[in-house]
């Protein structure tokens, strides 16, 4: 059978992901796995309709589609995202409908789940038969058991196609009929209290989003700066070249306006409002390009202490994966996500109130220096990154390693709470006695869990 591999890596054939595909091809020579380098050639694909139509023809003539890509900031690369947008914009979805699909996504295991969920949802929206995903660590092909499982994954995919197996729909279609948002006046003007507030958007073509931005900015007595990403000279998306790994020097340095914008606007602000429109289970590919290009600071949390608000036009409540991506990103960046405001309400007045409440909240939290504790999203990302930068990725990510040392990220790696370790050793020894073990687990354990923190609660000086 003929499988079209849509390669989402900007590095083309030399990507890690494509080595997994090549291994499948080597072991299954009876099938043709034809690779098309989507992300690497996205500019040509977008500009030349003949090239685009050639890809769509290959899709139509295939037996199945293998979406192969590396993780780029919790999702696919912006170039890949743009191709997915083009499929809808150029009415080519029908070429994918009914095709069997699978995903191979390589990463260092930082939120690969959200990237897979995104592609699964796209496949469901395109009317495809989504079979399964395979998400190895980028180096896992070196392990025999992973190679064996990779081949079993491929065989399951081939079998599903040959047997025309029924596949589950994991994501329901989005139903969205927005109201025409008409802002109303009447709120008391807020004071920024000297905090630098920045609103960043990717477009003002969506009237609802445009008016939402106006309502937010109009909530303040002071002028609130607005930057449209379309006005920034951004030559292209992240290339995955990792030249930034040594000292944050991006391959685009001096070649476009993104890095100056990021340093002079984003990093200089106390409060940042991200405003965008939902587009095929994410925001726009331009917003994805922004997040990918912010990797010029690699894995270092440069938004530490900033208050973040998000204005979204679209059914955010129906796209929880997008919400998780954004929540994870800002937790990983040590920023505080103050909240979202959307145009999902059925009255303009409620949208007004939500936006005004968000405006008041980001300023109040900025004044207080408030930061929520990380959830499992942020904690999980940081445990993975701590381990990787300490070990496997110390080279080439030298800048991260130096930053992590200054931030004391490695202080808890390995576990170095000597007092706790000694206590645990003593308890493990005591548990060998059945009578003591029963007393501890039946009568003492639950109360002992709060004994230390209860001292803080009961201390009148604290």
Automatic annotation (TrEMBL):
InterPro entries: Flavoprotein-like_sf (IPR029039), FMN_Rdtase-like_dom (IPR005025), ISF_SsuE-like (IPR051796). GO terms for molecular function: oxidoreductase activity. Keywords: Flavoprotein, FMN. It comes from the Bacteria. SUPFAM superfamilies: Flavoproteins (SSF52218). Residues 1-133 form the NADPH-dependent FMN reductase-like domain. Pfam families: FMN_red (PF03358). This is NAD(P)H dehydrogenase (Quinone). It comes from Ethanoligenens harbinense (strain DSM 18485 / JCM 12961 / CGMCC 1.5033 / YUAN-3). The lineage of its organism: Bacteria, Bacillati, Bacillota, Clostridia, Eubacteriales.
């Amino acid at each position: 059978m003929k499988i079209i591999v849509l390669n989402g890596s900007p590095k083309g054939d030399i990507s890690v992901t494509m080595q997994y595909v090549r291994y499948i091809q080597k072991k299954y020579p009876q099938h043709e796995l034809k690779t098309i380098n989507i992300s690497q050639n996205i500019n040509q694909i977008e500009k030349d309709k003949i090239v685009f139509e050639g890809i769509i023809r290959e899709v139509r003539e295939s037996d199945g589609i293998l979406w192969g890509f590396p993780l780029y900031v919790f999702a696919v690369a912006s170039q890949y995202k743009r191709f997915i947008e083009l499929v809808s914009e150029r009415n080519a979805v029908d070429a994918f409908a009914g095709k069997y699909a699978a995903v191979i996504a390589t990463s260092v295991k930082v939120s690969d789940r959200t990237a897979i969920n995104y592609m699964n949802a796209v496949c469901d929206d395109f009317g495809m038969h989504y079979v399964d995903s395979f998400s190895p660590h980028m180096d896992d092909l070196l392990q025999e058991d992973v190679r064996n499982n990779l081949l079993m994954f491929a065989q399951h995919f081939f079998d599903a196609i040959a047997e025309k197996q029924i596949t589950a729909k994991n994501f329901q279609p989005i139903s969205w009929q927005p109201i025409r948002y008409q802002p109303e006046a009447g709120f008391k003007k807020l004071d920024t209290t000297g905090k630098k507030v920045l609103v960043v958007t990717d477009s003002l073509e969506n009237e609802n989003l445009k008016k939402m931005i106006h309502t937010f900015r109009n909530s303040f007595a002071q002028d609130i700066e607005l930057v449209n990403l379309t006005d920034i000279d951004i030559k292209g998306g992240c290339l995955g070249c990792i030249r930034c790994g040594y000292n944050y020097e991006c391959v685009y340095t001096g070649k476009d306006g993104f890095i100056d914008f990021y340093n002079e606007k984003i990093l200089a602000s106390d409060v940042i409002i991200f405003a965008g429109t939902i587009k095929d289970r994410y925001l726009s590919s331009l917003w994805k390009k922004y997040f990918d290009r912010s990797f010029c600071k690699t894995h270092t949390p440069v938004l530490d202490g900033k208050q973040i608000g998000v204005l979204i036009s679209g059914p955010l409540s129906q796209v929880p994966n997008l919400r998780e991506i954004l929540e994870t990103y800002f937790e990983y960046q040590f920023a505080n996500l103050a909240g979202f405001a959307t145009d999902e309400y059925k009255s303009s007045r409620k949208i007004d109130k939500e936006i005004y409440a968000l405006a008041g909240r980001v300023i109040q939290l900025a004044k207080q220096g408030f930061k929520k504790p990380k959830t499992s999203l942020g904690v999980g990302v940081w445990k993975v990154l701590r381990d990787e930068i300490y070990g496997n990725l110390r080279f080439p990510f030298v800048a991260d390693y130096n930053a992590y040392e200054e931030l004391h990220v490695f202080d808890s790696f390995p576990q170095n709470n000597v007092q706790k370790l000694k206590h645990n050793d003593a308890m493990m020894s005591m548990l060998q006695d059945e009578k003591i073990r029963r007393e501890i687990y039946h009568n003492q354990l639950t109360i002992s869990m709060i004994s230390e923190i209860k001292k803080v609660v009961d201390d009148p000086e604290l």
